[in-house]
């Protein structure tokens, strides 16, 4: 009889643990900029400080999986499913989502790698923290963009001109991502959305 009670208690604790963490939270809305409004124009205008080649993308993969520790949250394949992503709400960015590359410039991504994301406290500024250099940030971003761009080097480079020519898939983007307002409403942390 006592053994049965221990088994029941163990099962109850297991169920409680399973429900204490969200399975996989959604990403923040890809249409919502992470760069503050007073800095977005400058971020969008930033361009890689080197010609983007397959060698640069390979170096970026080394940064992603090494010094940058990007894989910890974004996963080894960039899908936002790394071991550090467990329980994160919102989940880390899925870099294989081509729609993200169509609406965010490489400069915006480098700004976030440099300064961190005001909408995701777990995404710290790796350049300002001294973990990686500016050049390594650009290399990592070129690799991240390559995951959703395939072999399209204009997409990988992600200039503001290229992004401006892309269709904004607003309806489908909103179906696959969570809005910052929803995250803020469901979070106990303060609303850091950029208005």
Commentary on this structure:
The chain is globular and about 70 Å long. Strands 1-4 form a two-stranded parallel ribbon. Strands 2-3 form a two-stranded antiparallel ribbon. Helix 6 crosses helix 7. It has one domain (25-185): Cytochrome c-like domain (Cytochrome Bc1 Complex, Chain D, domain 2, Orthogonal Bundle). A hairpin with a 2-residue loop joins strand 2 and strand 3. With 195 residues, the chain is mainly alpha-helical. The protein has helices at 2-20, 40-45, 54-65, 71-74, 98-103, 106-115, 134-149, 153-157, 160-164, 170-176, 180-185; strands spanning 27-28, 116-117, 120-124, 177-178.
Summary of the model, kept short:
The chain is mainly alpha-helical and 195 residues long. 49% of the residues lie in helices and 6% in strands.
Keywords:
195 residues, mainly alpha, Cytochrome Bc1 Complex, Chain D, domain 2, two-stranded parallel sheet, two-stranded antiparallel sheet, 11 helices, disordered C terminus
Intertermini distance: 60 Å
Query: Unreliable runs, pLDDT <50, ≥5 residues?
Result: 9-23, 169-195
> Which fold does the CATH topology refer to?
Cytochrome Bc1 Complex, Chain D, domain 2
Assign the CATH superfamily: Cytochrome c-like domain
Total count of strands: 4
Number of helices: 11
Give the arrangement of secondary structure elements.
Layout: H1 2-20, E1 27-28, H2 40-45, H3 54-65, H4 71-74, H5 98-103, H6 106-115, E2 116-117, E3 120-124, H7 134-149, H8 153-157, H9 160-164, H10 170-176, E4 177-178, H11 180-185
Helix pairs in contact: 3-7, 6-7
